[in-house]
Amino acid sequence: MTTLNIHGYKGIPHNAAYSALCGMTENIISPEIDYDIDNPEVILIRLLDICAAEKIDMIVGTSLGGFFASVISAKYNKPLLLVNPCLQPQNIIPALGYEGDVSWFEKLSTEFEKLDMEHIRCIIGDKDEVIGDHAFTKKLLGMERITVIPSGIHSGATLNLEKHFPMMVKQIKIQKTC
Q: For 138-154, what is each residue's pLDDT tens digit?
């Protein structure tokens, strides 16, 4: 199984999700993304190209990476694991120092309507200091797809991903790419 791991804003490719995926998947593609330098359209095109070229079977997205992962999952109908996803970045990332145009995110969020909810699982910290209560995520995905970690904050390192990822992967239907 080949997995695309997309880190968050000001994050790193070898993040907590990457560490949790090691040993679970045969191949992890985890590109470095500078969200401040590249505009969102360029980032999405790059990620779509990676997904097609590498025959990605599953996508993992953390924070802002969760937005991109969700758009790609909707486009290619790929199984999706989300970690404290930032699904409304237009409301969050300006406060984190992002100076780019956020209207693109709002426009592209209409893609979420195409998500196959049976192929999605999400893990959030109930003390997430960046996203807050994840009200939008809970409404979009439904609580049956979300694992809430008591006292977990925004950092994936606080969510015990190594424990939860194997169970979450079993719950979604992974279809091998031909």
A: 999 999 999 999 999 99
